[in-house]
Amino acid sequence: MVKICCIGAGYVGGPTMAVIALNCPSIEVVVVDISVTRISAWNSDQLPIYEPGLNEVVKQCKGRNLFFSTDIEKHVSEADIIFVSVNTPTKTRGLGAGKAADLTYWESAARMIADVSKSNKIVVEKSTVPVKTAEAIERILTHNSKGIKYQILSNPEFLAEGTAIQDLFKPDRVLIGGRETPDGLKAIQALKDVYAHWVPEDRIITTNLWSAELSKLAANAFLAQRISSVNAMSALCEATGADVSQVSHAVGKDSRIGPKFLNASVGFGGSCFQKDILNLVYICECNGLAEVANYWKQVIKVNDYQKNRFVNRVVSSMFNTVSGKKIGIMGFAFKKDTGDTRETPAIDVCKGLLGDKARLSIYDPQVTADQIQRDLTMNKFDWDHPIHLQPMSPTGVKQVSIAWDAYEASKDAHALCILTEWDEFKTLDYRRIFDNMQKPAFVFDGRNVVNVEMLRDIGFIVYSIGKPLDPWLKNMPAVA
């Protein structure tokens, strides 16, 4: 029986291994992690992450050929294929701080693999890593090999949170990069055989190691670039009276461009986009490609600009101050159908409003009160370190309360800010909400989910990103 072990039981490792186990009943899959609480959660009925469809997949194969364990060394030693899905946070100090990936966790995983291995292994990079990481890992393993042979493969994930299970069952492509040597090609084939249980062969792409590593960074950079492009257009639409939805619809009808990732919003978030672009910038700078680095930096600058622009709209619309005013925050996760808050635009928007002394009442159907308070008190990039290495959350932000539903969050509020596109925000009883708010009542729609005309008919003053401005907002500055 082929044995697979995955180091890291997070957003990538857990779902990926569950889908492999379900589709490959003849393979034993063990997910290991140093976090006892995380592994306990995987072994309980309350999984540590929310992802539609994940529960059902885990239930079908847990205890049969899918296992979760903290006995890392035992399972690594027994495995034929080891997936490494550990954190690769952005460095916060030292060379490359603020841009380069910190490979501390990857290196310690590689050293541990070398220490405990008694048979040949295929080691698969599943975390997003900088180009040439495989070479560094290879060196660690070969210099500590004790006669054991290792093959390093790059198998980047291309999952979108909220649809990760669907993406795993029906991927656009599975990418496997390896050495173009006889042993390297054999290792590529072994991993290909695993995916071939359910993925059509023409969707399994093989490349050299560096192409696979760079393809992941490039894909995320291209997607983020599209969002920043449409968000840059949204500012121009507001200035000219154009409607960004109509513009992006017309642009997306061009078959060379296509309609995906052209929705204007308060900005992109998630664990990958910003981190991967910063990584790309650093690699370009290290290779003397300053102009290329500056090009990709601009994608992040536009994203930051969009969040600042949104906060400035809120403050300037409300008589240039939100001090002491209650603002209902609708949604905190970086996108709908996930509880993930990593790099969510909501953090920067909330911090901007708190900086002007607003009182916030935050509601999100999937994010815990503790997580929200943590995110609002944590330094940038600290979120990407394992929880036990993160700074302890202070007592929380006094001006922030967490609401149980949208109606509680909006009661007596001066304004609502919609920051996540949860479906329920489209169907709320906005008449009831209006009646319970302070007047004038504002809605700032950072995701373009509400029916603007209907809300204006009720009596709201509405700001919707990239849409023709409410007469109330026409002569107010969008930028501080």
TrEMBL record:
MF-aspect GO terms: NAD binding; UDP-glucose 6-dehydrogenase activity
Residues annotated for NAD(+) binding in this entry: 8-13, 33, 38, 86-90, 127-128, 161, 272-275, 342
EC category name: oxidoreductase
InterPro entries xref list: 6-PGluconate_DH-like_C_sf, NAD(P)-bd_dom_sf, UDP-Glc/GDP-Man, UDP-Glc/GDP-Man_DH_C, UDP-Glc/GDP-Man_DH_C_sf, UDP-Glc/GDP-Man_DH_dimer, UDP-Glc/GDP-Man_DH_N, UDPglc_DH_euk
Keyword Cell membrane part of the UniProt annotation: no
Domain of life: Eukaryota
SUPFAM superfamilies: 6-phosphogluconate dehydrogenase C-terminal domain-like (SSF48179), NAD(P)-binding Rossmann-fold domains (SSF51735), UDP-glucose/GDP-mannose dehydrogenase C-terminal domain (SSF52413)
EC code(s) of this entry: 1.1.1.22
Transmembrane segments: none
Swiss-Prot/TrEMBL catalytic activity: UDP-alpha-D-glucose + 2 NAD(+) + H2O = UDP-alpha-D-glucuronate + 2 NADH + 3 H(+)
Pathway: Nucleotide-sugar biosynthesis; UDP-alpha-D-glucuronate biosynthesis; UDP-alpha-D-glucuronate from UDP-alpha-D-glucose: step 1/1
Claim: Oxidoreductase is one of the keywords in the record: yes
Keywords attached to this entry: NAD, Oxidoreductase
Name this protein carries in UniProt: UDP-glucose 6-dehydrogenase
